[in-house]
Fold this sequence. Notes:
The chain is an alpha+beta fold. It has a single domain (4-150), classed as Immunoglobulin-like (Sandwich), CATH 2.60.40. 17% of the residues lie in helices and 42% in strands. The chain has helices spanning 4-20, 69-74, 100-103; strands spanning 35-42, 53-57, 60-68, 77-83, 89-94, 113-122, 125-135, 140-150. The strands form two sheets. The chain has a five-stranded antiparallel sheet with strand order 1-8-7-4-5. A hairpin with a 4-residue loop joins strand 7 and strand 8. The longest helix has 17 residues, at 4-20. It is globular, with a radius of gyration of 15 Å. The protein starts with a helix and ends in an 8-residue tail after the last strand.
Amino acid sequence: MPSRRQVLAGLGCTAIAGLAGCSGSGSGGSETRDCQSGALAHGDGDLLDRGAMARVEDDDVRFAVPLAVEEVRDQNVAALELYDAAGDLAHVIPVSPGDADVMANKSRTGEGQLYYEQYLGERPLHGQYHVVAVDDADETVDSITIEFNCFPEVSDDG
């Protein structure tokens, strides 16, 4: 039986995938699946309960992590560290509650939300990232491991 954390991580990824447009392609029609993302593991914190996911914009694959401004502020989150499947640090995304002002004009955020993205490459692209949220003392606040498959564009013509 899955734990509460596993269920929440899976639901968070599913909800975010639907909101972020990963379940359909703007250019390939509604039947095209661009990316599939799933949570493999989740840390003990609650900061990353909204999950993380890969998504496609044009042919670019982006790794997206939604956060709540208040949680970032309360937990003094300073960065998101993305580790590849080999365990190597691949990307560091600086995080700040002050980013909410800039993100307020973006389509993927609502009031009190932050939405960080990292360019990964062009599709097709498949992989796994372990995301570690660290505070200003470089201590781990939360973590999540995401596996994704972003496919080539497929037309309905077959």
